[in-house]
Design goal:
The structure is a single chain. The protein has 3 helices and 3 strands; from the N terminus they run H-E-E-H-E-H. It is an alpha/beta fold and 83 residues long. Strands 1-2-3 form a 3-stranded parallel beta sheet, covered by helices on one side. Strand 2, helix 2 and strand 3 form a beta-alpha-beta unit. The longest helix has 14 residues.
């Protein structure tokens, strides 16, 4: 799997903390975590590239792509983790 958590202690820490989800500003695929990407918290060199990256995230991952004001962090934090 491609992952920013690959061979880092972050994945272990998140599992110990029983984190049900990650909030990510960027592009990646995560291991068995719900992935939320607030499109207005991500950047690219140009508006066009930003739009392309967000569309790529939408079509290539299971991420929930939305604007940050639509995120309900208290609900995300309480969600059960995927098995």
């Amino acid at each position: 799997m491609h992952s920013g958590l690959y061979q880092t202690p972050l994945e272990v820490l998140l599992r110990v903390l029983n984190a049900p989800a990650l909030l990510l500003c960027g592009l990646t695929k995560m291991r068995e975590f719900e992935l939320y990407v607030p499109s207005d918290c991500s950047a690219a060199r140009t508006v066009k590239e930003h739009g392309q990256a967000v569309e790529h995230i939408r079509t290539m991952t299971d991420a929930k792509v939305t604007v940050s004001r639509s995120l309900r962090l208290h609900e995300i934090a309480r969600a059960p983790r995927k098995s």
